[in-house]
Amino acid sequence: MSDEQLIKDVAAGSTTAIEELYDRYIHVCFGLALKIVRDDFPAEKVVHDTFLDIWSRPHASLSLHGDFSCRLLSMVHSKAIDALRRSKADAMASDPPLAEPIKADFFMPVAVVGGPGLPKQAHIATESRVVQDAVRELSGSQQQSLALAYLEGLTQREIAERLGEPVGTVRTQTRIALQQIHYSLSAHGLHGKLPEGR
Predict the structure, then answer these.
(1) pLDDT tens for residues 52-101?
(2) In which region does residue 96 sit, left (phi positive, over 0), alpha (psi from -120 to 50) or beta (all else)?
(3) Which of 77, 84, 154, 163 is most buried, judging by how many CB atoms fall within 10 Å of its CB?
């Protein structure tokens, strides 16, 4: 059964449909959340909250355009960044260390056991390899800006403060890096839409 049909069934109150979506996507959602928050318990909470949102507001999931799995992972990413920011606000860290350059393997898909079918997994793996190659071509400062933005959830102003760079420089580095990744995807016939920098 398609994801879209399952969401319609969830909207009709089907517990079986939400269970099937959960079983289909739990591994990839947990893998993404864990890569961002770096701790099992907060990652589990992120995934739980995401599926709870889908269960309690399935019409919101239906009203969005695009592939359900992309929307789902976007929800997980957003909630994981929020959790990361909350934990940083609660922590009394002084002088956090500079982020390491983004590791290209971050873009490798997590194991999708029981997840999307083989054609979708192959597409995800191909897209991930193209993104990895594009990230390897970025300068160290571009990689670092992306790591701070997408893995640590920092705003461009916070990145600029952390790196001791002007905000305009960080914006430019981020924009150019995202464009390079987008062009690489397009050149390979993949039409992944990358998020705008903050």
Answers:
(1) 999 888 877 656 666 788 888 888 998 998 888 887 766 644 445 554 54
(2) beta
(3) 154
Q: Residue 20: what pLDDT?
A: 92
CA distance linking residue 29 with residue 112, whole number of Å: 9
Residue whose pair of structure tokens reads 């150019």 in the numeric block: 176
Three state DSSP letters for the chain: CCHHHHHHHHHCCCHHHHHHHHHHHHHHHHHHHHHHHCCHHHHHHHHHHHHHHHHHCHHHHHHCCCCHHHHHHHHHHHHHHHHHHHHHHHCCCCCCCCCCCCCHHHHCCCCCCCCCCHHHHHHHHHHHHHHHHHHHHCCHHHHHHHHHHHHCCCCHHHHHHHHCCCHHHHHHHHHHHHHHHHHHHHHCCCCCCCCCCC
